[in-house]
Each structure stands twice: as structure tokens, then as C-alpha cells.
From TrEMBL:
One of its GO terms (biological process) is protein-DNA covalent cross-linking repair. The keyword Hydrolase applies. GO terms for molecular function: lyase activity; peptidase activity; single-stranded DNA binding. Belongs to the SOS response-associated peptidase family. It comes from the Bacteria. This is Abasic site processing protein. It comes from Cellulomonas xylanilytica. Its EC number is 3.4.-.-. It is an enzyme of class 3 (hydrolase). Keywords: Covalent protein-DNA linkage, DNA damage, DNA-binding, Hydrolase, Lyase, Protease. It holds the Pfam family SRAP. Gene3D superfamilies: SOS response associated peptidase-like.
Length: 244
């Protein structure tokens, strides 16, 4: 699974990288994070109709990490839907509709996974790794998003609508399987346009998920990342696993 990632690139850098036309006001309030956790606000790239012109534009918006289905009775459901397995996207009602019409890219600089301790070592502590592109480029996590109306809020309350998102995962590559058996599905730049295009249906989107992702390297990092309250560049700094 993907349960923690880093997204610390500046908004303007992401706008340039993803050819963003509109950056939502609340995006600028997020700030960089080296320890993005479930239920946090996250930046996502989508193609939506402009409120004023109706034209489809590429936008950088904020979503709550953990998809809340439109039919959910309570927002807490989202904490169990931070990931969507690629093998069953079209079988689960929470993901089938968004997969067809509401796809997103979640910009990241890398993500974290925890490797189980070797029984022979006598230790039970998991070692965290920061997994990131070998070339230092931005990662585009394939995601889905949804709208949920909070039944406890009045119709004229601006906060009545919650936008939430999930990260699609796939079986880990042979190179990374020794750390964890799953990994987020990452799309290369040549697949971004079709993935975001609302006119591309589920069949076309499914083909995009079969394309190879970027080359990823694994860096052992401090167990400080285990605590969601910890944040900062030191979390992605390489350490000696024996001293982590």
C-alpha cells in the first residue's frame, strides 16, 4: 500500500511541470510536506470545466486523502480508502465510477514504505525507505477523486462538499518487492493527458495503467517518519539502517 508520501515541490514548479491553467486558492495554503498522511489535504491535478467559462481546463486543486464515496453516510469511510488496488478498480462501487470519469494525478516527490525486519537479526523494527525517481523528477501518482456532500451541513455552507482522493496501487516491481509487495502506480508524462481527459473512458484508462512507470530508487531513512507529526527535509535524508 501507499500510506505516506512526500510532496514538497513549490506550487509554481508543479504548475509548470503539469501545464496547469488554474491553481485553486486553497492550494497555496497547504505548504510543502515531507510526511503526507491519510486524511491530510493533498494537491491533485485534474481536468474540470471552468466555473465561469465552462471550458475544460487543467487545474491544481486540494483533496482530502482517502476517497469518500458519494453514497457514504460518514466521512470516516475515507480513512479506509486511501488506496485503490488496480486489480479490482472496476469491481468496487466506490472506485468504478470515478475510474471512468474522475481521474487525477497526485504530484509527489517520493513515497515511503516499511520493510519488515529480518528474523535472523533479532530485531522486530521495520526499516522505512524513501522511494523516489532516480532522476529526481516529480512523480505523478495515478489517482481517483470523488465529491461527497456532508449531510450534517446546511446547503448554503461552503464546507458542505468534500473533495477526496485515493492513490491507485499495483504489485511491486521485482526491484522493490523486497521492501513491500505493493507500490503506488506512477504514470509517465506521456500518459498524463489521456489519463486526465474526462472524454477517455474506462477502457482507455485501463490501457494507460499497463504502461511502465519511472525508475525508482530506495533510500533508507530515519524512523522519525513513523510519526506523522514529524515533518521537514531531514525525513528524506539517507541514513545507515543500523543507526536509524
Amino acid at each position: 500500500m501507499c500510506g505516506r508520501y512526500a510532496s514538497f515541490r513549490e506550487d509554481q514548479a508543479l504548475a509548470d511541470e503539469f501545464a496547469i491553467a488554474t491553481v485553486a486558492d486553497d492550494v497555496r495554503l497547504l505548504g510543502p510536506s515531507w510526511n503526507v498522511a491519510p486524511t491530510d489535504g493533498v494537491r491533485m491535478v485534474v481536468e474540470r470545466a471552468d466555473k465561469e467559462t465552462g471550458e475544460i481546463t487543467r487545474q491544481l486543486r486540494v483533496a482530502r486523502w482517502g476517497l469518500v464515496p458519494s453514497w457514504a453516510k460518514d466521512i470516516s469511510v475515507g480513512s479506509r480508502m486511501i488506496n485503490a488496488r488496480v486489480e479490482s478498480l472496476e469491481e468496487k462501487s466506490a472506485f468504478a465510477r470515478p475510474f471512468a470519469v474522475r481521474r487525477a494525478l497526485l504530484p509527489a516527490d517520493g513515497y515511503y514504505e516499511w520493510k519488515k525486519a529480518d528474523p535472523a537479526s533479532g530485531s522486530k523494527r521495520k526499516q522505512p525507505f524513501y522511494l523516489h525517481p532516480a532522476d529526481g523528477d516529480v512523480v505523478a501518482l495515478a489517482g481517483l477523486y470523488e465529491f461527497w456532500k456532508d449531510p450534517t451541513k446546511a446547503d448554503d455552507d461552503p464546507a458542505r462538499w468534500v473533495v477526496s482522493a485515493t492513490v491507485i496501487t499495483r504489485p511491486a516491481s521485482e526491484e522493490l518487492a523486497h521492501i513491500h509487495d505493493r507500490q503506488p502506480l506512477m504514470l509517465r508524462a506521456d500518459a498524463w493527458a489521456a489519463w486526465l481527459d474526462p472524454a477517455v473512458g474506462a477502457d482507455g484508462a485501463r490501457e494507460l495503467l499497463e504502461t511502465p512507470g519511472p525508475d525508482i530508487v530506495a533510500t533508507p531513512v530515519s524512523t522519525a517518519v513513523n510519526t506523522v507529526a514529524n515533518n521537514g527535509p531531514s525525513l528524506v535524508a539517507e541514513v545507515d539502517p543500523q543507526e536509524a
